[in-house]
């Protein structure tokens, strides 16, 4: 397994992480002592959160939903006679 000192790891982090992700793990050392081992995660891909339709069939929308209280609102702004 490849070892790199901490200065080299900071300088070439992007390249080293890419190599680790491709199956080439490495160890970061400081003053010749191993500190950490960098390996690829075998985590599954994140599935997108499914939200659309999660309340399907739970309630109904009234037919007059878009015009509900329309007369009262127009009256408050003086655009409709009572």
Helix count?
A: 3
- CATH fold-type name of the domain at 2-38: YefM-like fold
Q: What is the mean pLDDT?
A: 87
Fraction of residues in helices?
A: 25-40%
Specify the CATH class of the domain at 2-38.
Alpha Beta
Cα shape = elongated
CATH architecture of the domain at 2-38: 3-Layer(aba) Sandwich
Structure overview:
The protein has a three-stranded mixed β-sheet. It has three helices and three strands. The longest helix is centred in the first third of the chain and has 9 residues, at 13-21. The relative contact order is 0.12. With 82 residues, it is of the alpha+beta class. It has a domain at 2-38: 3-Layer(aba) Sandwich (YefM-like fold).
Give the secondary structure arrangement, pairings included.
Elements: E1 2-5, H1 6-11, H2 13-21, E2 26-30, E3 33-38, H3 70-76
In short:
With 82 residues, the protein is of the alpha+beta class. It has helices spanning 6-11, 13-21, 70-76; strands spanning 2-5, 26-30, 33-38.
Notable characteristics:
82 residues, alpha+beta, 3 strands, elongated, 3 helices, three-stranded mixed β-sheet, YefM-like fold
């Amino acid at each position: 397994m490849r070892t790199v000192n901490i200065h080299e790891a900071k300088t070439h982090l992007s390249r080293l992480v890419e190599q680790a992700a491709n199956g080439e793990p490495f160890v970061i050392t400081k003053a010749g002592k191993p500190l950490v081992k960098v390996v690829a995660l075998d985590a599954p891909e994140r599935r997108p959160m499914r939200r659309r339709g999660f309340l399907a069939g739970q309630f109904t929308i009234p037919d007059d939903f878009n015009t509900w209280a329309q007369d009262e609102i127009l009256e408050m702004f003086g655009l409709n006679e009572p």
